[in-house]
Amino acid sequence: MNQEIRDVVLEYVINEYMEDQDEEITFDTALISGGFVDSFSMVSLKRFLETKYKISLPDNRATPEAFDTVDKITELVEEFLAK
Amino acid sequence: MHNIGSYEERIKDFDWQLSEEELEYNPGNVINIGWYCSDRICNQGKGDKLALIWEGLGGKEKRYTFNDIRQLSNTIGVFLRRLGIQPEERVCLFLDRIPELYIGFLGVLKTGAMVQPLFSAFGDESLLVRLENAATTAIITQKKHVGKVRKIIDQLPHLKHIIIVDDNGKSPLQEREIAFNMEEADRIDSFEVYPTLAESPSVLHYTSGTTGMPKGAKHVHYSLISQYLTTKWVLDLKDDDIYWCTADPGWVTGTSYGIIGVWALGVTSCVSDVGFSAETWYKFIEKHKVTVWYSAPTAIRSLMKAGDELVKQFDLSCLRHLASVGEPLNAEAVIWSEKVFGLKFHDSYWQTETGSIMISNYPGLKIKPGSMGKPFPGITACVLDTNTYEEIKDTGKIGLIAFKPGWPAMMRMYWNNPDVYNSKFKNGWYIPGDRAYIDPEGYYWFVGRDDDIINTGGHLVSPFEVESALLEHHAVAESAVVSKPDFVNMEVVKAFVCLKPGYEPSEELELEIMNFIRKKLSPLAMPQDVEYVKNLPKTRSGKIMRRLLKAQEWGEEIGDTSTLEDE
Question: What is the ipTM of this complex?
């Protein structure tokens, strides 16, 4: 897994969505089902990935399940970068 | 047998006195929702029965009996009284779906103060306008949200107390802040509940307006009469049910039916404080053996998207009754739920201002998929001509939904806003702002809003509020905000933006604008699409014609453009 993408996504999530700075999240923290990122905010996270990596994520792949951890997001980004 | 029995029989000679009698309430008596939802149930010998099953992150679970919520709400009541909170003062609950929110709701009411629940995802600007308007005295929150309060505290001279329920002592408390830990505080067995009367204020729920800032709908303790009976007849709650209302108590469904109705009936309620995923939800139903489920079309459509195969992986045979609220439930969702759960979702219609369900589908009554159903017994409803406000007698003709005022849960005023309140009434009817038609069998069919308000995922967003916030962004010169269609949320927010000189459109700027609104207002209000435009369509008097932009998004005819400003 691309460590650079993992780090960028994790940093973005922490800076943009974490309200409680005492709360620690890792690469496998459940972001959506864990309630850190809600379904509306997921749209901005998707937009960030598309802008940052110049990819287009179709709605049927940008699901709460696919966005649930930094690692899952990284896998998704890698898949679309390879296309 | 369903609680309602026969709908047709119930509507004959209906009187709210029936609900008063079941609640052993006589006009003129004390009526306090906090007491009815806890002490009264214990007095009925159900103190050891589970009132709340709460599940948080990582499978963390807490359980509270009716005696627990009685004592703990007393504990909160004592704490607030010691702080000097007076009856009718506004106490805001700005909390995630944690037990303190549900129990605190009762605790505040027991003191005679008003509860002002606010959605914890609100940004500082959304919080400010609501606390300022209500001149809120105290706010109960969590450390994860206290940063938003600190940002605006200097603009809130009325806010005397910021109560933090999960302070861990890691960082020092600031001015006006105080820690309170419900679980560690002494349990109070005996508490003198404030003797509120029918018209004493209870809950202040904020809702979005078309042209102005959010309006606070003031409710009173007598609302219980409606909320109790609608819960019993529409949601069909029975003593041995396990009930799950998925709404957040920051919104009216989460209080009227997530707290008041269910606990006034002495029924066990489940709460999940984890985010949405289809798998998580199905697991939750299976694990807690949920029997009655009150949810929203947005969630149902998200479940539909997750597919039928996933449903089969869980044993959901515990479910026996499903209901929905927040926005129109499309026919496909009703048909789908029958296919996968063996049960149809019963759509219901009401709003913050009505305080309780007004039009609904009922257990035992034929469901027409896609229809809102029929008026609740005791509710006089019709559709009115949009110009004359006269009742439309013809079936199938679209008009404004209207209700004859007088049901118990009707809001009593908009806080500090009598003009807007009065504008909601025409020819003796209360007009919620939605259009519908009635079919020959008396079923109501939703058509759409009669204004520019955006209903996204069952939550109302004011375009005016988003446009005002957009103007505070350094790059935005002017904007117009409208709804655009969305499969899951029915509508989402779209912003048309004119940039200031020196700024160029870019994807990075679009994301910056989206996040700016998300943090300032809320994730719901965040535009999911930003379109850069050179000019906005305006009338000759300079008013932005949102109507044209909305028609463009929805593929509708633009209509009359005679007042459009010349190019």
Answer: 0.93
